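Sanity check record (used in CI):
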Amino acid sequence: MPIKNYGVLKGKAVKTMLGSNEKPHFQVLIVDENRIGYRIAINTKSQDYPSEVLYFVGENFKSEEITKLPDLEFGFTPIQNNHPDIGLDYIRGHLLDRSQMIPLPTDEDGPNNDLNDKFQYYFKQAIDTKAIVYAFGQRWGPEQNQPDQYFGFTPGNGIHDIHMNQGNEGHWQKDNGIWQDGGILLHFEQENRWVAIFLAFQSQSWCTDDNGNAMPSAEHVK
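Expected output for DUF2278 domain-containing protein:
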């Protein structure tokens, strides 16, 4: 069964919060043109072994999807029914090759060597230049009369599952689907430059069937 409420959030980053072993998500406060708040929760650690998350960044990303995104309204846009043409699929969309991804820990001594460092680097640029953020994943909320637990805005509201959402086995197999992968695209409008951040878990298969379920490695994606 695919994840529910898949879509893309368009807005601007305002504030960040680092992930930790106890709370293994990098948190970003996003606001839209109406100053409505959203939180995007980006995984920095897997619950499965190996725990290090696979990471890829494209500094000057080019893809057919990005030509359609600027026309979207700010806020959350459902994709599966409303805009099936802008969903992400790492495999079928040929967005990247698995070999381009590297495993990184949440936090490690030293500069620019963990996910907190990577995310903070790009989101600081996005905040400073007022870049437009497009976060693909599953929406939660609005949580009426309940403030966000990290940034305090009301109602709590946001995006998670900002990673590959296919090739899972076991408990997470229920989330498998195609054209529903998560990810982040940053549009630095002054430079007309796009930065893409894609994440996956090492336990996920990159050989999946038409339902996003893992196949034996000898089979091939159609």
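The chain has one helix and ten strands. If this sentence no longer matches the regenerated tokens, the check is flagged for review.
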